[in-house]
């Protein structure tokens, strides 16, 4: 991405991404969880980070609601704001990967173009798209925050799955189904993929 200013030049540093990764003894990646609201993204992301911490891995978890309380608190939920929200998260994810971390993101990230941009920003070699494939009907049944009910009543506008589109991933690295798989099974599936990916890197 180009800077808005022509006077900004990237400053080169002596300690690079490879050095940071070597010091941490791990292969940095961004694990990008996408799916509808109430699909289970935050629950899976939290359990995955716990499992990685138990392995001694250095991680950071970026959760949609938490980020909107700080970094992205100036953004709403229009399509334009959603695009900017994901762009900011991708740039932050790139920095975490550069720092040698395993970063886990839990965001609806409804648009394919935005997820593709996130992949481009972070880097193809460091990006793992995980589709939390929970049907809309099940997400509405769960509705832990009452958001679907409000959206159906017209109290929330631009709500993904109701009056704003969710574009399903076409070729995610990992697909999990929360109706068929338990939480430990989902976490194991992702860990197995990470182990396999690291073994051939």
Automatic annotation (TrEMBL):
Q: Which reaction does it catalyse?
A: adenosine 5'-phosphosulfate + ATP = 3'-phosphoadenylyl sulfate + ADP + H(+)
Pfam families from the entry? APS_kinase
Q: For this chain's UniProt record, which GO biological process terms are given?
A: hydrogen sulfide biosynthetic process; sulfate assimilation
Keywords, A to Z, come to:
ATP-binding, Kinase, Nucleotide-binding, Phosphoprotein, Transferase
Q: Looking at the keywords, is Transferase present?
A: yes
Please report the name of this protein according to its UniProt entry.
Adenylyl-sulfate kinase
Q: Where is the APS kinase domain?
A: 28-176
Look up the domain of life of the source: Bacteria
């Amino acid at each position: 991405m180009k800077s808005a200013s022509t006077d900004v030049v990237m400053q080169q540093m002596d300690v690079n991404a490879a050095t940071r990764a070597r010091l941490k003894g791990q292969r940095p990646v961004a694990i990008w969880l996408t799916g509808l609201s109430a699909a289970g993204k935050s629950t899976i992301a939290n359990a995955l980070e716990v499992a990685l911490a138990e392995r001694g891995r250095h991680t950071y978890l970026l959760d949609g609601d938490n980020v909107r309380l700080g970094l992205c608190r100036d953004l709403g939920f229009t399509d334009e704001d959603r695009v900017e929200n994901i762009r900011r998260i991708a740039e932050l994810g790139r920095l975490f990967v550069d720092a040698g971390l395993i970063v886990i993101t839990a965001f609806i990230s409804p648009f394919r173009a935005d997820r593709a941009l996130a992949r481009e920003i972070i880097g193809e070699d460091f990006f793992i798209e995980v589709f939390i494939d929970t049907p809309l009907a099940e997400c509405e049944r769960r509705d832990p925050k009452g958001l679907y009910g409000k959206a159906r009543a017209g109290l929330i506008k631009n709500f993904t799955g109701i009056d704003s589109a969710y574009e399903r991933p076409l070729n995610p690295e990992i697909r999990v189904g929360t109706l068929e798989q338990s939480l430990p099974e989902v976490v194991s599936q992702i860990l197995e993929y990470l182990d396999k990916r690291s073994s051939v890197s």
